[in-house]
Design goal:
Number of helices: 4
CATH architecture of the largest domain: Roll
CATH class of the largest domain: Mainly Beta
Shape: globular
Helix content: 10-25%
Structural class: mainly beta
Distance between the termini: 37 Å
CATH topology of the largest domain: Luciferase, domain 3
Strand content: 35-45%
Radius of gyration: 18 Å
CATH superfamily of the largest domain: Luciferase, Domain 3
Number of domains: 2
Order of helices and strands: EEEEEHEEEEEHEEHEH
Length: 200
C-alpha cells in the first residue's frame, strides 16, 4: 500500500509492521516528504479532520512543462496541492477519502463518492460504478450513480438503497440511478468522471 502522484512519486509508503494495524491507511510520508492537511483557508488541520493533502520535499516536481496555468494551481511556494482529500491520524498515518473535485454537498453535508462507490463495488450485480453530484432543488446537490451492470444483470434504485442500508448515512445515498452499457475508462482502466459529468 502507498500513495503517490506523477508530481511527487511515492510520497507515502505503508510500513510492513503497520499493514494490519492501520486498515484503510495509505501509510506514512516517506523520509524526504513533509505532508500535512489544509482547509480551504490554507490552515493546517489537526488529526482526524478532512482537508486537502499537501506535500513538500525534494521529490516534488518543479512545474508542468510549458503549462504555467496548471502549474500555478498545483505548485504554490514549492508546495504540492494534490487535489486529494484526506486526513492524518494521531500517529501521522495518511488516509485519502476522495478527490477534492469529486466531493459534493447535499443538505449542507459533505459527501465523498469514493466511500459509497467502494461499498457498491461489492454488489454482485455491479461491474463498475461512478457517482457524481448533480444539482438538486431540494438539497443543493444530490448523488447520481452511473452503473455498469455485470452481463445479464439489472438494477433499480431500491436495490442500491437496500444494499447500502446500514452501511452509510442516509444523506450519502444516491437519489438517481442510470444504468449504462459501459463507463468510460482510461487506458489504465480508471473511470473518467470528467467525461461522465458531460453526460445528460
Amino acid at each position: 500500500m502507498g500513495f503517490g502522484q506523477t508530481e511527487n512519486s511515492a510520497m507515502v509508503l505503508m510500513p510492513q509492521w503497520a499493514s494490519d494495524k492501520k486498515p484503510g491507511s495509505m501509510g506514512l510520508p516517506n523520509f524526504f516528504t513533509e505532508l500535512w492537511i489544509e482547509d480551504n483557508n490554507g490552515e493546517k488541520l489537526p488529526p482526524g479532520q478532512i482537508g486537502e493533502v499537501v506535500a513538500t520535499g525534494p521529490s516534488v516536481m518543479k512545474e508542468y512543462w510549458h503549462m504555467p496555468r496548471e502549474t500555478s494551481g498545483t505548485i504554490i511556494n514549492d508546495k504540492l496541492y494534490t487535489g486529494d482529500l484526506g486526513y492524518l491520524d494521531e500517529d501521522g498515518f495518511v488516509y485519502v477519502v476522495d478527490r477534492a473535485k469529486d466531493m459534493y454537498r447535499t443538505g449542507g453535508e459533505n459527501v465523498y463518492p469514493a466511500e459509497v462507490e467502494a461499498i457498491l463495488s461489492y454488489h454482485p450485480k455491479i461491474e463498475a460504478v461512478a457517482i457524481i453530484g448533480v444539482p438538486s432543488d431540494k438539497w443543493g446537490e444530490t448523488g447520481k450513480a452511473y452503473i455498469e451492470c455485470r452481463p445479464g444483470e439489472s438494477l433499480i434504485l431500491e436495490d442500491i438503497h437496500s444494499f447500502l442500508n446500514g452501511k452509510v448515512a442516509k444523506y450519502k445515498l444516491p437519489t438517481i440511478i442510470k444504468i449504462v452499457d459501459a463507463l468510460p475508462r482510461t487506458v489504465w482502466g480508471k473511470i473518467k468522471k470528467a467525461e461522465i459529468r458531460k453526460w445528460k
